[in-house]
Amino acid sequence: MLWNECRRLAMELSELRELGLLYRPTNPDYASGPNGMKVTVQPSTVHGTVRVDRCGGVVVLLANTLNEPTAVRVSVEPSSTHGTYSGAATVLFEQRQVAVKLGAFDDVVDGYGSRVYSLGEPHCPAHSSAGIIKSNLL
What is the strand order of the sheet 46-52 is part of? Predict the structure, then answer.
């Protein structure tokens, strides 16, 4: 069971790295603040941040600090380069979407869980580093 979770986490980190979300924290567009985008999450027991991926897409990351599922309200404030978004946000690593209206959406985050949301259409080509290698005999 532990190996399955480690494998899932490794795949998610690989995908986030490909989007450019694990690096470049000093770029002003990648930090929440007065010149960048800002995310507000309620309740405060769920922490959030907003990033711009390497292709210009907006990605919201959440982490629940409680050991119980928590309903959240997320609001993403526009910046000078990204306006207010309404539409669907794709929940990465899950097969679902949430509705976004004027930069805000509601969802539930599992106990000690995390969520990654991509707002709007993906700007980067869709591909995955994980896959089956035909020559692999295991």
Answer: 46-52, 58-64, 114-119, 87-91, 96-100
